User: Fold these one by one.
Assistant:
Number 1:
Amino acid sequence: MSARRNVILEMVRKEFYQILQDKRMLLVSIMAPILQVLLLGYAATTDIKYSTLVVCDLDRSAESRAFVRRFTTTPYFIGKYAVERPEEVDPYIEHGTANIALIIPRGFGRLTLASEPVRVQVVLDGTDANTANILLGYATQIVASYSQGVLAEFQTLMKGARIARIVPEPRIWFNPDLRSSNFMVPGVVALVLMIITMTLTSLGIVKEKEIGTLEQLMVTPIRPYQLIIGKLIPFTVIGFFDVLIVLGVARFWFEVPLVGSLWLLFGLSALFILTTLGLGLFISTIARSQQQAMLIAQFFFLMPFMFLSGFAFPIANMPRIIQYATYVIPLRYFLEIVRGIFLKGAGLNELWPQALALTVLGVVIFTLSVLRFRKTLE
Amino acid sequence: MITLLRAVKPIIVKEFRQIRRDPTSLGMLLVLPAVLIVMVGYALNFDVKHTPLVIFDQDRTAESREFLDKFIQSEYFDYKYSAGGYGEIEEHFLQGRAKIALVIPPRFARNLIAGNDVHVQILVDGADANTASQAMGTAVRLTADYATKIVAEAFARKGKQLYMPVDFQPRVWYNPDLISSKFLVPGLIGFIIVLTAVISTSLTVVREKERGTMEQLMVSPLRPFQIVVGKTVPYIAISLVAATAILILGYLLFDVGVHGSLLLLYAAILIIILGALGQGLLISTVTDSQQVAFMVSVFSSLLPSFLLSGFIFPVASMPVALQIFSNVAVNKFFLVVVRSVMLKGAGLDAVWPQFVYMVIFAAVMLGVSIKRMQKRSM
């Protein structure tokens, strides 16, 4: 027993020695997660703010100016340009100097109960569909609330009628300020863990294949399972170390609240790592060179996982078939776990379905990969 | 030129042969664009629809059902559960089964008829800030619509016709249906080029370094400039093929055509390829192992061009410091050019500043890496 353990220990020691020797590699595996969490925390924001607005106010009344102010007092629009004629807004949209144009017709200020509605035009640059969509939503809300105000004035002119209003009362749970980073940064914890454990594992093994040292290891009395464990432990350690770094940045730099249990997070991370290490092993069995291993890891696992796991794009918006495909992506479940623990303080009571899914996926992926790996060794 | 070609030809031939001998990698480089475009085009969608909804109706009258129908019928919400209390809503939120909840107060109908204001609670799971804020906006808008309908009915009872005072007419240019794929597919070209060019180039040179064959090349009578040309020509070809594949697939699958000049588009593509190759070479001069080269490529080119270029997340919404930093991602400028030329049909007069930047970037990258190689050889 102890002899076997010694073999594994020796393997682990050798691996660590190799990793530590490559100073740049070490630097990369420490710097990369920090860089990643900072970038994603700041850059991956889907809040649309400060869009430039070009206004063509043909009415020039107190009412029309008040209407424009409704737009510019929100953080979404900055009133940068004003033009005289409706055609003059076109170049601003064409050259992208303004994202949205507002054209207010004559007679806007003389709205009465009897009059026909006034036509307010909004021109949007639709190239960025997402931004345009959100801006359109804001604009619609502003116009609707302005209309309501006008209607309320009309009502007071109509004597005797009391008309009820329906007052919406939005309440936001778990992330009251709706900060993007509260959503993105916990996701990076999952992402970093996956990148490090999966990519480095596959590279580490394929490297030995390339150099031919894997064959040398094969002819030694080391058993395949010892080899696998010895190979996997160092990357697991590095992965967890990186998770600690990212957690630190998330908690103390981005001030993402960690409501739930840290230990539960670690425990379930171990389940997740089972799947990523398994995938890393699997990649190492099909790749013949490090270059191939990277390409496979990058394009067939990392990218699809990033796009389809709900990391940035909501799964509910995807076509049905793709939604079914997301069920086999381990990252999907782990993201739900990480975000649940971080923001909602969810415990095993709530997260058991995700944990169960991860366990099933982990056992299946890991077993199949180990079997395949052993076969390629023989 | 002819002498250059003659000198360089053997390297090109050798490089091509090496690529061909590794059909897996070549296949991946070429299949990849297809995989990515399908995934990005079909699966990635930011507009928030089908948000799972919980309803807690404490009134259960015809009126409350009529109001709720507005939400149930809307494509923005999927009515999933009906709850009997706040505890149940919280349970659904914690397990991630629902993201938004509507709470209808008791005596909703009676108060409405009596002309008293009613308050409808909209509870949102804020963990995903983007989904939450959009879903909330939609909910507020639907509530306002219903309230307006009540007002209109009250006016009608008095024998008056009611117009909405402001008739809102949005016009969306270039992408009237606000389809995400029209925005993402052109961006994909830049992303793929950076992926293939930077990563493949850095890896192929570092591989020669690892094996010691780079030194052999250095002692050959070839000048560093010629080595660079020989090494990069094959990857220029592959990148061009990949870019063309995306253009064709984008047109066939997602109807994203080129409105502007094809020549201008390809000029931009060629310049960014050169810049990306330069960057890959530069990386290869500062790293010694494929593993490190890969990591450096990912963090200096892949992540920035994914996160900072405006490929998905709008640059204008980032913190100012990051906006300045985002200029390192040459893709940011390329994206402006590609989107303008493809969607808006813009000409050189609209995008020349971006062109200038791209040319400078390519010149600096190629120049510095050739300089560094020269130093090495001495």
Number 2:
Amino acid sequence: MRPMLQYLSGELPTALAEAPESPAAPGEGGLGRRVFLKLGLAAGFALYAAPGGAQDASVGGSAPGAPEPLKPFQQPSAFVAIDADGIVTVTIGKIDFGQGVQTALPMLVAEEMDADWSKVRCELAPAGEAYKDPFFHIQMVGGSTSIKASWQQYREIGARMRAMLVAAAAKQLNTPAAQLRTESGSVVTPDGRRLGYGALAQAAFAEPVPASVALKDPSQFKLIGKPVNRLDARAKSSGRQDFGIDLQLPGQRTVVMVHPPVFGGRVARFDAAPALAVPGVEEVLQVPLSGGATGLAIVANGFWPARKARELVKVEWDLSGVERVDSAAQLAQFRALARQPGIAVQRADTAALTAKPAPALITAEFTFPYLAHTPMEPLNCTIDFRGDRCTVWVGSQFQTVDQAQVAGVLGLKPEQVTLHTMTAGGGFGRRATPTSDYVVEAAQVAKARHAAGKTGPVKMIWTREDDVRGGYYRPTHLHRVEIAHDRQGGVLAWKHVIVGQSITMGTPFADFMVKNGADATMTEGVAESAYPFPIALEVHHPKANVPVLWWRSVGHTHTAFVMETLVDELARAGKLDPVAYRRQLLAKHARHLAALDLAVAKSGYGKATLAKGRAWGVAVHESFNTVVAYVVEVSMKGGRPVLHRVTAGVHCNLAVNPRTIEAQVQGALVMGIGMTLPGAAITLKNGEVEQSNWHDYRVPIHVDAPPVDLHIVPSADPPTGMGECGVPPIAPAIANAVAALTGKRWRSLPFPA
Amino acid sequence: MISFRLNGQAQQVDVPGDTPVLWVLRDTLGMTGTKFGCGVAVCGACTVHVDGEQRRACVTPIESVAGQQITTIEAIGGDRIGQAVQEAWVKHDVVQCGYCQSGQIMAAVALLRHRPQPSDADIDAAMSANLCRCGTYVRIHAAVKDAARSLA
């Protein structure tokens, strides 16, 4: 079982353990800082672990009295460039893989700068000190925090830049700064003269950076809160946007991998001769992979020769000692575990379940399969290793982690690794691997080539089959729930057991995501449910030789389905209206109520008469501090649900870019619909993944996407998450409509074929 | 040497005849607007036009298009329908990650060539062969309809 254990133990590579700490003032507080100190490497999801999004004390500008020197993440020079024509380029520390921060973060800067939006551009930052998230202390995207965690930081950068432009103008005009105002990319004098930012830029950057700046009140916003089109819309509509996979460097070679058929498998022997006979193929290298596995790297002068050669390499695999997971057996194992005492996460009295006379009981088991992310752009990474330094180009969601992991493989210090963040074709969590699996793989190839005396950059491209079979899936889960109730909506007892692999155990994230042996990324959505039920929650984390990972909305992908279908079932058992029942239960949760009420009101629920054969379905769920409510209209055709319309109510506090929020909800709910589609499952037989590409791993297509009416609850409070929150409530809303139409409770995803 | 026309220009490449058009474009000619998604003609990211008809470049051997006209995303804006589709894409802010959108646009142009005023069902049928993991389908749908209106 050694290889399996290696997958699970995920020992921190030396380079990670030695990653330099961010230079922060002694005694600086904040959960993120403490986590950072504890781990040596800041492991990312601290905000996510602290609902409410506590702000790091260090973010709020200078303290009264002697001002602290500004930190790199507070310096405009790292984030803003202004050319002579007044083009403002905002460099953001986050990757954009569709979620729209490449537009929304520049909006935050431009708002406070009073920049001319038509002259604002955006670039993605390489791995660098200034771009580490001030809360997480690493450079990363995760937990739907890009706007939430940057809200103050990026506005302050804009405000500082504006102050420096005004100071420069004041000197040039010999006018007190207080008499100058700014507007649309210019400093304006009391008599109406305008000095463009382009002309002032050079002098402005020579001005001292103000420690403390006043930020606008939301009522003064001109840009924030307006629907703004994406800055990259035109490039991405004309084939001009370069992604990581599009990189072309002089002397570059393309690498296609040969992975073992079972996770942790090792090359016993191989015959490369037939592969080397393919014109363009240069070498076949054996390389170490994650978790003690080994594989082969086929190096060629392009993708096609390498891909062709892969079919010709003869490999004999050593699978001894490697656990071979079988999905059917695993589910039986989970089912048996769910009936045994687990690790208590939340305690409550469950005596009512066995009381005499017996109350009304609901006993339900829910199952959820492994899910692959399959972002459209196949995973890839380009590395140019020069012995004493290295350059990496990758669509990384975890720049600091990937940089350190590459350094570890190549025997370099992180600062000897330049990591360029490439625009990425989707991610959904797959580009945030604590093990940096595919990036490390590319580094191993670069290392092996370098050892063989070869030079020049290598671009490793995973095929879709590598991706579908490559692990790092949303884990398989089983929930077993027993509820005693009074047939009037009153819950007397609720025993809830969740079984599933831990995502974070064995990674640097475990220290704060795992408490008493229970992984919070599995229980979120049940453990912090807004519903006032007396939930006794236990978990089991069986190990399995399948690497697992967060998948857009993480634990909420399954917990929302369980909670929202059970709430619906309780309402119907009590002959209560499902909306009225939820409103009663959520009486103390104003944001839940506001989102739900908005969706209900706009949908016509309870007022409009539906076409014959249609029913409403409702669900509301909070994730990443944002509440999303869906009201859906469904009919049945051939035993399958047809989704006619979705009305969404969203409470994400202040909506920075409503256009992006609409896009995120439209897209997230399509991904959520995807979880319901028969065929949306990764299964294993004898250790091998049974699916290989999109023909047998079902993802949503054009015709699966329903019309969506989106409504955002107005708010001026600091924004909360948006990238993932639209996923969780759609599957239960559909299932609830199906139950209304058929009387059948579908308890598993995907839905029956 | 295999000869064909690419975006209106004569083109010759010296590659094995079984090399897919996708990899001739991307690796031999350095034209990366056409994307690799699945390699088995199920996702549509690699959609190009061959003599005006949409084709999955990832499974189309270059020798099979000798002498024919290949049009890619890089040149589709020079076409009246292509330009209308691209403008509709920008106006509707369709893209998210953007990776599938070259293929989506090529598929939409092919649809509008055959059906200048497609119904919702026509759009569903034609565009369901192109995957988008970000789920931009609602906006794609609206943009196709808008492009059709602008061309009417």
